[in-house]
Amino acid sequence: MDLIDTHCHLDVSDFDADRAEVLAACRAAQVTRIVVPGVDAAGWDGLLALCAREAGLSPALGLHPIYLDQHRPKHVTELAERVQQRRPVAIGEIGLDFFVAELDPARQQSLFEEQLRVAQLANLPVILHVRKAHDQVLATLRRLRVVGGICHAFNGSLAQARHYLELGFKLGFGGMLTYERSNKLRRLARDLPLEAIVLETDAPDMTVASHRGKRNSPAYLPECLAALAEVRGEESELIAAQTTRNALAVLRLD
Fold first, then answer.
1. E strands, the chain, where?
2. Spatial separation of the C-alpha atoms in residues 103 and 131, rounded to whole Å
3. For residue range 54-66, what is the model confidence (pLDDT) as tens digits?
4. Between the CA of residue 72 and those of 78, 101, 107, 183, what are the distances in Å?
5. What is the mean pLDDT of the chain?
6. Structural domain of residue 204, as residue ranges?
7. Angle CA 154–43–118, to nearest 5
8. CATH code, domain with 68
9. Are the C-beta atoms of residues 217 and 201 closer than 8 Å to each other?
10. Which residues are 128's β-sheet partners?
11. Looking at the 3D structure of the chain, how many domains does it have?
């Protein structure tokens, strides 16, 4: 049973002390592939180097809206250059975050559109970060069509989910499914077609219930799988196989 963590920030300093041990735990837990999204230009070199030296790690490159004040116009040009040189599996993590009030919406929108154009030119999928902005993101994706991608940590409505699916996207579900009080999210995971779902951890953030208050790990992905199987009333093996197929297809992984 091979599992793919479609969203894990394994390159960040939270893992510097024990990254090798975390990777060993992943392999023991049958997490055989991890997608590592970039969030700022300063981190791209380290991320690419990590993915080059460790089997099973796949890089994505992007400029995260949360770090808007760190991004400069030249970084989009550098992103396009890196994509041509290193060919990541996706452009990401990109998107819109209207939850954080101090992040200027207009600047976010401009940066988002510029990165979608990079994805278009490279014919790459995108990994989306969306908070309080699903309608705006969907409207943008209808104007600037890409080959699809993943809406990470999806928490929108069932109707919005269907619009993402029509645009070629899969929806990421992870540690929040393991919390019994995540009623809306668990209903979504139950009601969506299994072909729509990919698994993720977002480690070191958004940890599973069994490690509440502690660092999250990609090795905990089987707990996300178990929660998804529970809410859907389906066998873990079936869900593992289908979510892995979904990830392979949407990110065009070999």
1. 3-5, 31-37, 57-61, 90-97, 126-131, 149-151, 169-173, 197-199
2. 12
3. 999 999 999 999 9
4. 10, 20, 11, 39
5. 98
6. 3-250
7. 65
8. 3.20.20.140
9. yes
10. 94, 151
11. 1
